[in-house]
Structure formats: C-alpha cells, structure tokens
Specification:
The protein is of the alpha/beta class. 43% of the residues lie in helices and 13% in strands. It contains 17 helices and 14 strands. It has helices at residues 15-29, 65-76, 79-92, 109-116, 146-150, 154-159, 166-182, 185-188, 197-206, 250-261, 278-285, 299-307, 324-330, 344-347, 362-374, 376-393, 396-409, and strands at 2-6, 33-37, 96-99, 121-124, 138-139, 142-143, 191-194, 213-215, 237-241, 268-272, 291-295, 311-314, 336-339, 355-357. The strands form three sheets. A six-stranded parallel beta sheet has the order 2-1-3-4-7-8, sandwiched between helices. A six-stranded parallel beta sheet has the order 11-10-9-12-13-14, sandwiched between helices. A two-stranded antiparallel sheet has the order 5-6.
Length: 410
C-alpha cells in the first residue's frame, strides 16, 4: 500500500512527532511504500526529499507588518503548501493519507487538495486543536471547556487564550470558525483516530459522528528501548520529563515535593526538559540541593535517566490526551504517579499499573509521594506489572494489525 504520512514538524517536538516517526518506520518495515511530507526546518532529521517540503512558518518570531499579514493568511489557506502537496500526490499517487498535526502551518488547503484527488483521509487527534484554539483545554491556569460547550470559539477572544494576546486569540477564533463553519473540515476527513477515550468523548460532544471516530491508543516499539538499560537497584530520585509550561504542573510538583523534602533529605526531584517556564523555575528553585534541573536531553540520555528513576511524576493541570511519557516510563518498568485528568484516568489503574492523585491537590500528591517512599516493594511490583501491560496492550504488532484494518476499510 502507498501511504502518505503528513506532519508539520520533522523533528522530535513532542508525542505527535514520536508517533509520526514510529508509525512511518513500522509501516516501512512491513513492506509498504511510505511517503513523508512535512515542513523545512533547521532541526529536521536528514531526509532526501526535503526540497518538496513546505516552508516552515515561525509564529514565535516577530516580523514586519507585511510578513505578519502573510503568516496570518497562510493560517487560513496556505497556497504554497497546497501546491507542494499536489506535486507529491501527482508523482507518488498514494492510496491513503494519514494526517497528524497539520493546522496553522499547512492550513486546511491540504485537505481540499487530497479530496480533489479522491484520496481517503485519516486524522489522528493528537491534541484538541479542532475544539480549542490553543490546543489545550487550558486557560487562565485552569481547565476550560468553554469553546467545546458553546460550540464556538468566542471565549478564546475575551480570555486571551493564545499567548495572552487579544490579537492572536482573535486570529485563533477566526481560524476555528473558518475550519469549522465555512470549510467544514470535519466533514472532509474520513476517519478520526482517538488515542484516548477522553478525546473520543470530546470529539463526539463537538459534533463529529461517533461512527467516524475510532479509539486506537498509541504504541511503543518493544525494541525501542532496550530492557538492558533498566537499573537493577532502585534509586532515590523522582523524575519529571517533558515540556516546562504552566499546564504541565511542574511548579505545582516542585512546591509539593519541597513541602515534604525536609522529612526525606536523601531524596531528590529531577526535572528534564525545557520550555517557557524554564527560566522562572530555575530562578525560584535551582538553589535547593534536592531539586535538579537537567535541561533538554537526547533520547539516549533521557532513557538512561528514566531507567534509573524511582518514580516518574506527571503532575498535569490540564486534561492530558495520551502522553508518550507514560509508555516510555512503563516499558522500563518505572511506574508513573499522575494526576487524575483527561486520558490519564484510563491509562493508569491506581496501585496496579501506576498511582493517581487528585487534580491540583497538593496534599494528595504529597501523601502519594510519601506512600511511594515507604513502599518500595509495592513500587517495584507496580513497575513490573505495568511493563507487562505495555508489552501486551501497546505493542507495535497489535497496533499494526488494527491500523491496517482501518486503512483497508476506507
């Protein structure tokens, strides 16, 4: 089968990219012709056909007024991306197109060009962009479903949900209205893949017909992380790894840990990753000897750090979808302590395949950390059980069987 895989980033920016690369590799190993299409970026992995990629749009960079207008125009209809993709379609003649993260950089113009050539379209719901202009269901430091509830994006404007800016939030509002009400993008997509039951439920609430949504959890290759990297001796540090941003709850975690740290002076909390909150967090907490900021790590370095951790903490304040950090930890038999929010409540069974604490509750998080320290045998048992579950439920072979059935059906 000729399969076109599309994602707006061709480097490891987050979980969506991890899945994009792993799926493309899996399909190639199974003998399919996989065509990759993305944007040009200095961080891109080496790839021969990047001349056919679309131009990358840097929304974080401030440009001249005319260039900013051009950026805004491309959000709604990117002619260059449409033209480049049409060239790929004509030359490669794919049987199916699997879309991952595409909005803003490519615009919905690429969906229309795929439809022009009658190519079936699958979109994996890696985030909440279709339902929430800032992707996160998180505004003013708390979970927000206003746009979903009202079936429009007006709340984005007066709450300044995008970069705390009225202008950018208004642009997000217009983009949402354009895709939903004018272009009717959801009607053009044949199948939506929902990694979590949580996002499937939200997609149905939004109005996408449930028969077009298939729950298909992400996978992790059982050979992706060697079991040899698993440390035999349990260490004395907790670990958070990922983006350092408000919705991820890193500051919340640090404060909770420090509330009990005097009682456990031999224990540390290590923070791996970077993001908009990095400077603020370092300024406030890096002088404490029990807090260690590791910065951004490559895959090999991060795997080693994960494998030696006592427990991984996912303190999210927003409704997570299906974070890869869970699978990456569990495959190494390292259990996860996570907040009860979004897709995490189905991904983790409390005291069986991990630990859960009440969303945003310092006392509950502190009590769960203390309990874990006092129950090392139980933590080890949970780690072993969760590793078995990952190999059984989230392996590449099972995912391949399911995705091929979906591809063939449409």
């Amino acid at each position: 089968m000729k399969i076109l895989q599309i994602n707006k980033f061709f480097f490891l920016k987050g979980g969506a990219e991890r899945h994009f690369f792993d799926l493309s590799e899996l399909l190639s190993m199974k003998g399919h012709q996989v065509f990759i299409w993305s944007t040009k970026h200095p961080l891109n992995f080496p790839f021969l056909n990047q001349k056919d990629f679309a131009k990358f749009i840097d929304f974080s960079k401030k440009d001249s007024f005319l260039k900013e207008i051009k950026k805004l125009k491309n959000i709604f209809w990117n002619k260059e991306a449409k033209k480049k993709l049409e060239k790929i379609i004509k030359y490669k003649k794919p049987d199916i197109a699997h879309l991952h993260n595409i909005f803003s950089h490519f615009s919905s113009s690429i969906i229309y060009i795929l439809k022009k050539y009658n190519i079936p379209i699958i979109l994996t719901l890696h985030d909440y962009k279709l339902f929430c202009p800032n992707y996160k269901f998180f505004s003013k430091n708390k979970i927000c479903f206003d746009c979903l509830k009202n079936k429009n994006y007006k709340s984005c404007i007066y709450k300044k949900c995008i970069k705390d800016s009225y202008i950018k939030s208004f642009a997000g509002y217009l983009e949402g209205k354009w895709n939903k009400d004018f272009l009717k993008v959801a009607e053009k997509i044949d199948i939506f893949l929902a990694p979590s039951l949580f996002i499937k439920k939200k997609a149905i609430e939004w109005g996408i017909p449930k028969e077009k949504i298939i729950h298909l959890p992400n996978f992790i290759d059982e050979n992706y992380i060697s079991k040899k990297t698993k440390s035999k001796k349990q260490s004395n540090y907790f670990l958070y790894f990922g983006r350092l941003s408000k919705e991820k709850g890193v500051e919340f975690l640090i404060k909770s840990f420090l509330n009990i740290s005097n009682d456990f002076p031999e224990w540390k909390l290590k923070i791996a990753g970077d993001g908009p909150e990095e400077r603020k967090l370092k300024k406030a907490f890096q002088k404490n000897k029990q807090i260690e900021f590791l910065g951004r790590k490559n895959n090999k370095e991060l795997n080693k750090i994960i494998s030696k951790a006592y427990l991984i903490v996912v303190p999210s304040l927003w409704p997570e979808n299906f974070p890869y950090s869970i699978l990456e930890s569990n495959i190494l038999a390292i259990p996860v302590l996570a907040s009860r929010t979004g897709g995490l409540t189905k991904l983790i069974k409390h005291e069986k395949t991990g630990l859960l604490f009440k969303l945003g509750d310092h006392d509950d998080l502190e009590n769960k950390i203390i309990w874990s320290i006092r129950n090392p045998k139980k933590i080890k048992q949970i780690g072993e059980l969760t590793q078995k579950e990952v190999f059984d439920k989230y392996n590449s072979e099972k995912y391949y069987e399911k995705i091929m059935k979906i591809y063939k059906n449409i």
